[in-house]
Amino acid sequence: METLFTKIINKEIPADIIFEDDLSLVFKDINPQAPTHLLIIPKKPIPKLSDASEEDKELLGHLMWVAGEVARDLGLDETFRLVTNNGAKAGQSVFHLHLHLLSGRPLQWPPG
Ligand code: 5GP
């Protein structure tokens, strides 16, 4: 099912894009929860992490690699958190797999 992230991938709605390659897109969250709040998404529309299949293993690794690359490029001082909300009860609101990258303020643990 198409979500608004598909529209962002297809440039049908605007987003502040930080990075793009054949497999992934990174853009700023519209409602940031930290001074830096990015969303790292696959272009393939996987609804959530638990829907990924074995054939997606490389793609999932790629997303993690992109997260590290972007953090390095932005000089985040090696201090950031990656989160994926899997399912509505875990706080997921957009059903296109995404990693949240949060940085720029102290981050509490455990998260809420
Ligand atoms: P979730 O709640 O599914 O883990 O995260 C979805 C995220 O997408 C939220 O942090 C929300 O602020 C962000 N978001 C929702 N709609 C848009 C949009 O149109 N543009 C951007 N850049 N982010 C969005």
From TrEMBL:
SUPFAM superfamilies, A to Z: HIT-like
Boundaries of every HIT domain copy: 4-112
One protein family per Pfam: HIT
Example of a GO MF term: catalytic activity
Classification via Gene3D superfamilies: HIT-like
UniProt short sequence motif Histidine triad motif, positions renumbered to this chain: 96-100
InterPro entries in UniProt: Histidine_triad_CS, Histidine_triad_HIT, HIT-like, HIT-like_sf
Active site: H98 (tele-amp-histidine intermediate)
Origin superkingdom: Bacteria
Protein known as: Scavenger mRNA decapping enzyme
Organism for this UniProt entry: SAR86 cluster bacterium SAR86E
